Amino acid sequence: MDNNLQMIGRAVDYIEEHLTEENLSLDRITGEIGYSKYHLHRMFTFVVGIPIHRYILRRRLTEAARMLVFTAKTPDRYRTVLWLRHPAFFFKEL
User: Fold this and answer.
1) Helix%, strand%, coil% for the chain, nearest 5
2) Contact 21, 82 (CB under 8 A)
3) Whole-model pTM?
4) What is the pLDDT of residue 28?
5) DSSP secondary structure letter of residue 10
6) Contacts (Cβ under 8 Å, ≥6 apart) of 29
7) What domains are defined for the chain?
8) How far apart are CA 39 and CA 37, in angstroms?
């Protein structure tokens, strides 16, 4: 289990480092950390409680909310920087 936790930690670190990049995907993450998509998807969901794509979306929304509170950028700029293509992302229940 420790190896799986390390794998999840590496995936989360990679997500954090590349959160503002449009092409952040399971394929890209698994290619970087060297695990199969199937294994990472299952273990990430088991450990974190949500699938990796939903985790990325939630992190982007959290970052957008942080930017809204602590910076002077416009909401359209948040969507652009974080690849949230539609304003409804801010209101959709995850």
Assistant:
1) 70, 0, 30
2) no
3) 0.77
4) 94
5) H
6) 11, 14, 15, 40, 52
7) 2-90 (1.10.10.60)
8) 6
Q: What's the pLDDT tens digit per position in 41-83? A: 999 999 999 999 999 988 988 887 787 777 776 666 655 555 5
CA distance 44 to 79: 26
Contacts of 62-66 with CB under 8 Å at 24 or more apart are 63/19, 64/90
Hey, what amino acid is at 5?
L
Q: How far apart (Å, rounded) are the C-alpha atoms in residues 69 and 72?
A: 8
- Rounded alpha-carbon distances, angstroms, from residue 16 to 27, 55, 74, 76: 16, 11, 22, 21
Q: What angle do CA 67, 16, 55 make, to 5 degrees?
A: 85
Identify which of 49, 12, 44, 35 has the alpha carbon closest to the alpha carbon of residue 27.
35
